[in-house]
Amino acid sequence: MSLKKLSLYSLVPGIILFLGIVGLFNLPHIASANPSHFLPTVKTAAATTTPNYLTPGTGTTTLTYDSYTTSIPDALDSAVLMVQFTGSSTASTLNIAIQYSDGGDDYYQDGQGWANYASSTKTFDISQIYQYSWQYASTSRAFLFGSNVTGTSTDYRIIRIPTPTRFVRAVFTLPQGSLNGAVWAKWLPEQENQN
Question: Can you give the pTM of this predicted structure?
Answer without folding.
Answer: 0.68
